[in-house]
Amino acid sequence: MVLKCIECGREYPEDELRYRCECGGLLEVVTELDKAEDVFDGKNITLWKYESWLPVEKRVSLNEGGTPLYRLKNLGEELGAPKLYAKNEGNNPTGSFKDRGMTVGVSKALELGMDKVICASTGNTSASLAAYAAKAGIKAYVLVPSGKIALGKLAQAMIYGAQVVPVSGNFDDALRVVVKASGELGVYMLNSINPFRLEGQKTIALEIYDQLGFVPDNVLLPVGNAGNISAIWKGFKELKEAGITDELPRMIGIQAEGAAPLASAWKEGKPFKPVEKPETVATAIRIGNPANWPKAWRAVKESGGTLEMVSDEEILRAQELLASKEGLFVEPASATSLAGLIKLLESGEIGSDESYVLITTGHGLKDPNIVVERFTLPEPIEPTLEAFKEVMK
Length: 393
Ligand code: F0G
Known about the structure:
The protein is of the alpha/beta class. It has helices at 73-79, 98-111, 124-136, 151-159, 171-184, 195-201, 203-212, 227-241, 261-268, 293-303, 312-326, 332-347, 368-372, 385-392, and strands spanning 2-5, 11-13, 27-30, 69-71, 84-88, 116-120, 139-145, 163-167, 188-189, 218-222, 250-256, 306-310, 356-360. The strands form three sheets. The chain has a six-stranded mixed sheet, with helices on both faces. The chain has a four-stranded parallel sheet with strand order 8-7-6-9, with helices on both faces. Helix 8 links the parallel strand 10 (218-222) and strand 11 (250-256). It is globular and about 75 Å long.
């Protein structure tokens, strides 16, 4: 197994500690597909069911993957898109899809003999890395934008015992420090530029195929640092290359309006340009300079998909719809996938008779404040039946 540059094609051995090619290009793992087993029988789904598709021997696991794929019947009918599903990644051990990347990434850290790991994070990556480092018994440093990470995620990173380092600046600023630290201070970087992390995340594609028994026409998901969309696309491509299926989905990436460098470049037909001061209520994707943008761009282009952006208001409305119509409580970033679907259906850019899988990336309890601040509770009532009867009127 080797690492290969997506720009110049240069290859590196898997045990070489590096995150980018000499030319600066992003690296990806070349999977040994002749060893990848056809295990797609729809049963006993967990991430490690797909071990033969993954580039690690060790296993630091908290039982990740195997997340539910719900048919969204109520919303599908209401929106006139009846073949609507959600892959709920909030059901992972720390409540987000990051656990898929971390089970593989932290396992790889141990294989490489590293005893310190580091990441920059808008919250979920830090929570996940902290948990897996705890399980592995190694030290984790997590750099987070000061004051801009959701309460639940901060609590997680702290209790799992990571060294939480708030940074005066945004995610992009924190990532710059982390990249330098990993180069100079002997700490293993587990942001999504790390190609092994994306290998874990590609299992979302394998599970969707395993659960549905077919490849959906479209996969919609939020795009922040742009790793996950690349990872899921790689998973579907490998299923095809391995001869398991002939189909491929369209990859549809959704960004928040205030942090949409990729979606705006796509829509305006202009070259990619970072956003200096990203801002959105969906703090998980409050990112102006997505490190994996070249991979994400290719995923969207190759798959015949698209990139879209949605407003904070549309995001919060979609969050409420998922909860109140389907019983699915997701964090704001995750709701961008539904908000994007609604927007694209309304504009007629996509057709309603196709199948759509929304990746709901993180649990709603991660960010309780965003909900509590939007709703006001009434005054308390007297503890009597009479008082409650008044309420029911
Ligand atoms: N959804 C959630 C809930 C996230 O936490 C993230 C990224 C994304 C979507 C976007 O995924 O970066 O692969 O495009 N969160 C990172 C973090 C940046 O630090 O937790 P992406």
